[in-house]
Amino acid sequence: MNLELLISDWSGVISRDIDTVVWAKNEVRKLYGAKPLTKKEFCDGYANFEVDLVEDKELLWKQYKEFFKKAPIHPTTIPGSVQAIKSFHDKGVKVVVFSSHPQEFLDQEAKEYCVDQYIDLLQGSVNLDKSKVIEGFVDQFKFPKENIIYVGDTTVDIEAAKKAGVTAVAVTSGYHGEEIYGGYYKLEEAVPDLVVSDMADVFMIYRFML
Q1: Which of 2, 7, 114, 142 could be joined to 150 by an S-S link, Cβ 3.0–4.6 Å?
Q2: Per the structure, how many domains does the chain have?
Q3: SS3 190
Q4: DSSP string, 150-163
Q5: Which domain holds residue 100?
């Protein structure tokens, strides 16, 4: 394998934002009389978090973004993630990051973390089938699939990478990892090709293939 393209999720891989996200989501739930959820409850069913509130999803999205801005806890980098992204970039690997995280927040956080300069494509507000998005990047950059890895922190991420035909690397630093589940058994449900602690470990393993 000659690693040429690194595709990565943002939340739980580069940015630790779960406290901010859950706080903002729960503030939205309060508006509709819904009970707040614990972080584990949120992570167990985060893909369907808002289906029980109202039909106007655009309104929910707007309300969520307003609460996110007001959150008492600000997202921070996951230790070692920025240096790892820089190291991949410096070695000539193309770096793509995409996320459902709102584009304006993604841009702002990437600048705050001083990682934006090492990312070739930063795409937020993505609410499509992740496997289709990954396939789109494969077509765009035209590297062989065997030279592409996708790094994610949830079972949804891993399943998407495998469906797209690229190497699925799971990190335990995020939503389905150590902090919430006390291990990586949740991630193993999706049968990733590799499970590591964080993005720093991803670089330590793949640096010999650059």
Answers
A1: 7
A2: 2
A3: coil
A4: EEESSHHHHHHHHH
A5: 5-16+76-209
